[in-house]
Amino acid sequence: MRLSTGRHRRTRTLSIAAAVAVASGAGGVCLGLTNDGARAASATVTVSTTAQLEAAVRNAAAGAVIQVRGGTYHPTATLKSTASGTATNRITLQAYGSEKVRIDGSRLPAGSWLAGIHGSYWTVQNLTFRNSPAQGFVVTSSTGGVFRNLVTADNGDTGFTLRGDNTVGNLVQNLDSHGNYDAAGHGQNADGIAVKFGSGTGNRITGARLHDNSDDGLDLWQFSTPITIDHTWAFGNGRNRWNDAAFEGNGNGFKLGGGGVVVAHVVNDDAAWDNTLHGFTENSNTGAIVLNRNTAYANARAGFYFATGKARLARNLAVGNKGGLSELGSSTVSAANNWDGGVSTPAFRSTDATTAYGAREADGALPATTFLTTGSTTIGSTMN
Ligand SMILES: [Ca+2]
Ligand SMILES: [Ca+2]
User: Fold this and answer.
1) Domain Pel9A-like right handed beta-helix region, which positions (predicted)?
2) If you measure from the C-alpha of residue 125 to the centroid of ligand 2, how many angstroms do you get, rounded to a whole number?
3) Has this prediction a pTM greater than 0.70?
């Protein structure tokens, strides 16, 4: 008995020493140890080739930090993981320092997603995912994910997706998602961001620019729990930019339901302009959607379309939407919006959107702009 314990102890000591030796010899690779002395896959890994990136994602475990050196990477299979971190021991995938990293899906087999995370407590930041033959970046049934300063562009279906039950407490911050187009569907499905087919509390989208996608800017089809969306811009969606003779893109800025869900999403301080359908729409969601201080400008249909549900709209601003400022039903609550009686419409400082397309701030925040600002402290989006 005593001998056995001693042997175990000696083995453990040796394995720690071996791990330290490996760590010091491997230049930046730091192996973690579990309480029983076993080697864990938690490590800081810096990758500079596609093969290294693929392996690092495939082998990631709680505590892993994957740093990607600047350059363009061409995966030949979906970057996929089913691993989860924990709240205190996350899995991180990020650019190395301030280097520019493009992960390009143009060498993937048809129908492949570029990245698929099926786990919790991931932080993914400062990376671009583009040219996938199908979806760009898909997160399934994640708790506690942080997806920050990402670009999802020119993919063959939706740029960024959260989906599945047990989608809880995720933050999508400062996403740029544009130019996504599903050729096979003639553009009917590729949104900037989709939170679809699932449920779970505490999910937030903030600081996003969702533009020039074939279908909608944002789509919450059949997600049955409230999502919070703030400081997000959706613009130029639904236009046939691909010379598709059978084009079927819809082009709502913010599509806030569909598929029978009744859910009170919270939509504050956002803007929708130049979309080919509505700026903001319930899309048959009859829940008590909350919309405060949003701006809809120059959309092809209604600025705010909430004709059948119980949405509550306050202090929103609609200007120049060809299908009307708003279309509201008898169960909608509308107060202090510029279409309500006695509310004046402040003038825009600028209707030139050029700066809204510009580079983000160093920390990833939306670019400073006067576009669609009014200086009002009571009505419309603050555009920041
Ligand atoms: Ca569609
Ligand atoms: Ca859509």
Assistant:
1) 139-299
2) 25
3) yes
